[in-house]
Amino acid sequence: MPRRVRDSLRQALTQMARRPAVLCGAVVLSCTLVLAIRLSCSRAKAVVAPAPPPSRFFSADAPVADLFLGQLAQAERLRAAAEVSLVCYYAPWCGRSVSARAELERVARRLAGQVQFVAVNCWWNQGRCRKQHNFYQYPVIHLYYQRFGPIEYRGPLTAAYLEQFTRRVMAPLEYLPSRDRLQDFFSYHEPGVVGYFEFNSSPQPPGYMVFLASALQALKRDFQGGVRFAVITNRQVAEAIPLQDFGAVYMRRHSNTSLIFPRHKLNFTSENVCQWAFEHREGLLRWLRPHGGKSRLLDAELQRGAALLVFLPFDPLAGAQPLVREVADVATRYHSCERSQQAESGEQTGNVNEQWLWSRRTPLFEQLCCNTVVLPQSHSISRTHNVCELCINQSAGVEPSEVQAPRCSFHEMEAAMDSFYLKERTFVHLVSRNTECSNIQSTYSPFSYYTACCKTLNEGRADLDNLSEPPSLPSSSFTSSTQLQDEPRTLQNMFAHAESSSSAVNHHFLNGGITGLKCRTNKTLGFYMLDSHLHWKFAVRLGAPENGTTKVFTTIVNVLDEVHYVLDHSEFLKDALENFIRNYSILYSPLKRYLVGESVPRSSNSLINEVTTQSFNSQVMDPEKDVLLFYYTQWCGFCTVLNHVIIQLARFFQGNQKIAVCRINAAKNDLPWEYMVDRFPALLFFPRDRKHASVKFPDLPFTLPNLVRFVLRH
């Protein structure tokens, strides 16, 4: 092996001696390469320039201590010296931090002297804040009440909402000096927690600081302030609840029994009081504030069941919120099952009219709504009929003085008659000259039961004259216009004409009609409110006008059934909302599914007509044209691939005025269920004069010959 190496080196030296120019070129090239590598490596540190030192982020004239070098220790000193402080951790490059800067400065100018505002640059890599904190997003806003904190603010980054939350931290407890203030405090839909303390002792009454910390714990747990805390110092005011012992904590609930904190079971600590309040609070009405358009908050709530969404223009700093009060009042009465049960059991309710009503009710015929049904003849040769008076028991809470001539709506009577005809054989074979009644328990619905009173009649006029009335109602100021009367009537006018009755639900559920409806129907609703100033884009997607002036929109969304209904706000909000909820709660609801669609495009001479929800009937259901409808969506990749095939098909039939090729964006235009498809792309052919016989394109390749044969075949 060494011999071979020596021979190779000897040959190389011989060749280099014969060609010295090649040797010199190789040496120069090697030196140049080594020098270039050495220079590039020596300049590597100078390629990356150091980041410039940070500068002031907030305005110099704003009352905000801007610690742009990330001085966390100085921020702690400023916070400890103030009673209430707000610390904002920001990143200079963050767009949300930039947009929140002006809002925070506006709040700082309004609350200057009351709150210490501190801003810390938590992005500079040499600052102490960046080394100690690793936030998921920016900005992060923390509030401190003396030594208690941090209380993170997670609400909208607007001046109004931020100021409202800051003021709640500044005054976590509300003082109630009189019974009027106490009544006003309990009138809100949020649950209220009241503590009774005597301030004669020094420096603070026993348990007061624990109660104050409980209110701060509640704000830390729920930034929306779902539970409100207040303090009573007057014995006369406390006796109205009633509270007798100093240090007692009382929680007011609207639809359930109010509670007193059980000191004999739980230690009186801020954590226990806060946990007790949140465990026993009522979820009557909830504010939803989704963070951005991709938030899953709204979807998570809609997955729980049918939801009533009310979009209202909300001002957090306004003292009176009349629209919010109206919605809250409806939600409170809707969930007040205990009041409805007390009324049905005849307990005293405090209202003279209600007491009179419940004391005179009968268990069988209470607030009846009746229609007459003539059953078919039991035998073909018989000249007798069984005539039945079908009466629906209305929901509790209707005062007789408020109802004049109640009538059955078509939807309510249809629901009762469906159950009645299931038991028709029981009444068809009845032969009785006397009135026979049967009280039939209905299914779980807003109507607890209905009653059928039947009698056998001949077709003679005399029997009609002697037709008995059903058991009479208690004496009251109204009579049912559909009850049997003493005057003679013919069989023709004894048939039920429920379709000619009054509007869907105007005759019942009046006044207390919505009270306790949650417990009398299996179509339970969740109540939610959204600020239309922040979340109007959700309302637009559900059918609200994009440039609406009122910014008030109400809808019921049922994700499970894939339907939603929209309220017409031509009426007063409270009345319209009650009727809307009652119509939805009826077993056979008269509400129509709302179809969201794009605006009708301007007429054009294009080969393919664009169909929307509004133009579907006029274009697709035209009885004089054969229509081929192409279903697509903007996110469907296969739909885009087929565009050229659909265009070729439209050109093929361009000369035939009886054939139209149309397309519809199914993601933006809702259609009735019978015209929807389960996948995209899809083709449906609607032949002229036979629209009911529409045909779906079979599972074949989407080619021009297949499409032409499909159209010509049908």
TrEMBL record:
Lineage of the organism: Eukaryota, Metazoa, Chordata, Craniata, Vertebrata
SUPFAM superfamilies: Thioredoxin-like
Residue ranges of domain Thioredoxin in the record: 45-171, 589-714
InterPro entries: Thioredoxin-like_sf, Thioredoxin_dom-contain_11, Thioredoxin_domain, TXNDC11_thioredoxin
Transmembrane segments: none
Name of the protein described by the UniProt record: Thioredoxin domain containing 11
